[in-house]
Amino acid sequence: MQVINQGRQISSNPRVLTTLKRICTMNRSFVGPEMTAETAPKGQLIWRGSMVLVTFSGLCAIFVSVVTVAEAWREHAEARWPAVTARVDTCGLDQHEH
User: Fold this and answer.
1) Is 77 helix (H, G, I), strand (E, B) or coil?
2) Domain that includes residue 64, residue range
3) How many domains does the chain have?
4) 7 lies in some domain
5) Does pTM surpass 0.70?
6) Residue 11 forms part of a structural domain
7) In degrees, to the nearest 5, what angle opens at C-alpha 71 toward C-alphas 69 and 77?
8) Is 88 helix (H, G, I), strand (E, B) or coil?
9) In angstroms, rounded to a whole number, what is the distance separating the alpha carbons of residues 22 and 12?
10) Extended strands (E) in the chain
11) How far apart are CA 39 and CA 42, in angstroms?
């Protein structure tokens, strides 16, 4: 058996033939159609969508934490106000025309 490369004879030695068979296994017809830059693979879209959701969730968590700390500080400050007793002497409602 002979090994042929671009129309030229290389060797008739079976040992060289098996070595070349292992090296030369790729075939041009095996390569599929080229991928265009217009469409992103499905996995990449899922990854990007997940990253957007994670980022949005993180920002929401930070916002909620800041609001919670501000409310807790306000309630803490109000708790330190002194308690007073008051008596209402009169109560009324006046109507004014504009």
Assistant:
1) helix
2) 3-25+42-79
3) 1
4) yes
5) no
6) yes
7) 105
8) coil
9) 16
10) 3-5, 8-11
11) 9
